[in-house]
Specification:
By secondary structure, the protein is mostly helical. It is about 85% helix and about 0% strand. It is built from 4 helices and no strands. Helix 1 packs parallel to helix 4.
């Protein structure tokens, strides 16, 4: 069964944090320059934009955040802490 368009967009927005975390991980681990380190942090911080935007959207529509929010924010918090420990 196909999901409605709004639900598919919401699911993808919640999952976008993983893409930004993967990109910043690649920048930190495989590219060992100062500019790559800066780009890694910029990518990590950009990863916060879709989940925060979706949270505001859900709050404006008075909907529950759901499991997508838990996944996104947990991933961002844990990866941010690990990035800070290794590349702070």
């Amino acid at each position: 069964m196909k999901k409605p368009l709004g639900q598919a967009v919401a699911d993808n927005m919640w999952g976008m944090a993983a893409l930004f975390v993967c990109a910043s991980f690649i920048s930190f681990v495989f590219l060992h320059t100062e500019s790559a380190r800066t780009a890694g942090w910029v990518l990590y911080y950009c990863g916060w934009i879709p989940p925060v935007g979706m949270s505001l959207w859900c709050l404006a529509r008075r909907e529950k955040l759901g499991i997508g929010a838990l996944f996104s924010f947990t991933l961002l918090i844990v990866s941010g802490f690990l990035f800070w420990l290794n590349h702070g």
